[in-house]
Amino acid sequence: GDVIISYPRAVEQAEELGHSLDLELNLLIVHGLLHLLGYDHASEDEKSLMWARQDELLGSTLPHP
Question: Which whole-number Å values give the CA distances from 49 to 36, 44, 60, in the listed order?
Fold first, then answer.
């Protein structure tokens, strides 16, 4: 699979969420890779698992939409 990131949208999201573009790009890459590995967030249980793994990989706790 592929992870495709819209750079202009990443810039917008970083500004909207009040964090750096680097952090947003890292988040999008990790999030996309987790989807390729079978993680999802269609239910609250799935979302909790995915976000926990995402936080672990990024080494931080980020605000979750």
Answer: 15, 9, 15
> By C-alpha distance, which of 24, 6, 21 is closest to 62?
24
The predicted structure's pLDDT at residue 63: 59
Enter the pTM of the model: 0.85
Q: Which residues of 15-54 are buried (b: 16+ CB within 10 A; e: fewer)?
A: eeeeeeeeebbbbbebbeebeeeebebeeeeeeeebbeeb
Place of tokens 């080494």: 59
pLDDT tens-digit series, residues 3-41: 999 999 999 999 999 999 999 999 999 999 999 999 999
